[in-house]
Amino acid sequence: MQMSRNRKILSAVAVCSAVLLGSMIAVTQSQADTEDKAIATRQGYMKLVVWEAGPLFGMAKGEIAYDAEAATTHAANLKAISQYPVTGLFLDGTSKADRPGKTRAKADIWQDRAKFEAAFDDWRAAVAALAEVAGDGQPALAAAVGDLGKSCGGCHKPFRHKDF
Ligand code: HEC
Asked: What pLDDT, in 10s, does the model give residues 46-56?
């Protein structure tokens, strides 16, 4: 049986539409995939930060015995981590408003990017200062860790929701 010319055109249009729609869905899916990965990666970065900073907070509070060598190592690792520009993982479309339940990132990050970057720079400076004195005794460590804690809060307060 021969298809009429019109039917041929119609079926060609249908095939093209299906291919186009399919590729549009694929693009949307891979974009969502990239966004999910960026969210998971920045959260993993913060976990790494806590992995290194946790013992330093413990020593500052006196919950862990001060150990100059361990403190120096953790602070140096933290400084290395702080060199990574994590703010780049806050992709457009990845605030809590966009992805409720997945992230605590406030939309304010995208509304005032410069302030977010400044909070990150302040934190980096606090980490660098801590790395200078971590081996100089518990009181010096405790003071620098106090400043570090403030710099975490300096970003979390304006830019991180309490809940997911
Ligand atoms: C420049 C901003 C900024 C700085 C500085 C910062 N954080 Fe965060 N942190 C965030 C944001 C934003 C989130 C939410 C990320 C998300 O849910 O997508 C977060 C999430 C976290 C989380 C939760 C991670 C998870 O698994 O969901 C922990 C823990 C954390 N931060 C600890 C710290 C500590 C400790 C410091 C300081 C030593 C610190 N952060 C410094 C912005 C910052």
From this structure: 999 999 999 99
* Model confidence, pTM: 0.89
Atom of ligand 1 minimally distant from the CA of 159: 12
H or E element that contains 21: helix 5-61
Ligand 1 centroid – CA 135 distance (Å): 25
User: pLDDT for 101-133, tens place per residue?
Assistant: 999 999 999 999 999 999 999 999 999 999 999
Identity (one letter) of the amino acid at 131? Answer: A
- The residue whose CA has the least distance to atom 8 of ligand 1 is 46
From the candidate CATH numbers 1.20.120.10, 3.40.50.1360, 3.90.226.10, 3.40.1370.10, the one assigned to the domain spanning 35-159: 1.20.120.10
155 lines ligand 1 (CB under 6 A): yes
